């Protein structure tokens, strides 16, 4: 029985593919983009998070302290350096201040939840979208999910950064109706600097999709990050790379900091971006890069 680790199933999404979608978020990503808004997606395994705003220690609760064998929780605070991710604290926390990002599930368990939205898919041309993280980090699980979804006549889509095994991408594409693929930078050195990884495999994989699976509609996306890839040269290089291909749309995504609070809840520092990023992001997208 194929299992995988997910951290969310989001119903009634209107922005993750055609129609009304149910989005399955898989854990694990090989990149570390400095603008990432889903840090809980990066590591492949379940991990504890601590929302201090929900903690009721000051009201006399200390259940988490009583079950933590390494004494990582003291006086309403979690020491992530000591935490072993045993999840005992999450099991006893009445306010859900301690909880877990990540649950191991089977393909059948996921699709049972996805098919609850069947009425929306039937009338709204929607379906299931795999997202992450990078869903193809869990290649066997992702492919099995897509295969079974197609057997059940569900429309399938994926959101991918393209940093995955090419064989896994090919296997997944055989069961995909729609692909959303991120291209962040063409310059390899800058890509390594800002995402933590090379873009060589990413560009090879997008070519595979275009050349071997031309029938699949694709949405190519670029998150526009001020001072990183916001110049006409950077965006123009991506458009030039895409110019030989067809059956795709190209979308520019605005920079935001919606995930900033999640970093603190996971015991991590929010990645440093140039100070001027916040000041110019809105104006930039309102003028030059409205697509």
Strand content: 15-25%
Radius of gyration: 20 Å
Q: What coarse outline follows from CA principal-axis ratios?
A: globular
- Tell me the strand order in the biggest sheet: 7-1-2-8-9-10-11-12
List the uncertain runs. Answer: 287-291
Helicity level? 25-40%
Largest sheet: 8 strands, mixed
State the end-to-end distance: 44 Å
Number of distinct beta strands: 12
Structural class: alpha/beta
What is the overall number of helices? 11
Q: Quick check: average pLDDT?
A: 92
H/E element string? EEEHEEHEEHHEHEHEHHEHEHH
Secondary structure topology:
Layout: E1 3-13, E2 21-26, E3 47-50, H1 63-67, E4 73-74, E5 77-78, H2 88-92, E6 98-101, E7 103-106, H3 107-114, H4 118-124, E8 127-131, H5 139-151, E9 155-160, H6 166-173, E10 178-182, H7 188-195, H8 200-212, E11 218-224, H9 232-242, E12 248-254, H10 260-265, H11 276-286
Parallel strand pairs: 2-8, 8-9, 9-10, 10-11, 11-12
Antiparallel strand pairs: 1-2, 1-7, 3-6, 4-5
Tell me briefly what this model is.
This protein is α/β, with parallel strands linked by helices.
Characterise this structure.
The protein has helices at residues 63-67, 88-92, 107-114, 118-124, 139-151, 166-173, 188-195, 200-212, 232-242, 260-265, 276-286; strands at 3-13, 21-26, 47-50, 73-74, 77-78, 98-101, 103-106, 127-131, 155-160, 178-182, 218-224, 248-254. With 291 residues, it is an alpha/beta fold. The longest helix has 13 residues, at 139-151. The chain is globular and about 65 Å long. It is built from 11 helices and 12 strands. Helix 3 (107-114) crosses helix 5 and helix 5 (139-151) runs parallel beside helix 6. Strand 9, helix 6 and strand 10 form a beta-alpha-beta unit. The strands form 3 sheets. An 8-stranded mixed sheet has the order 7-1-2-8-9-10-11-12.
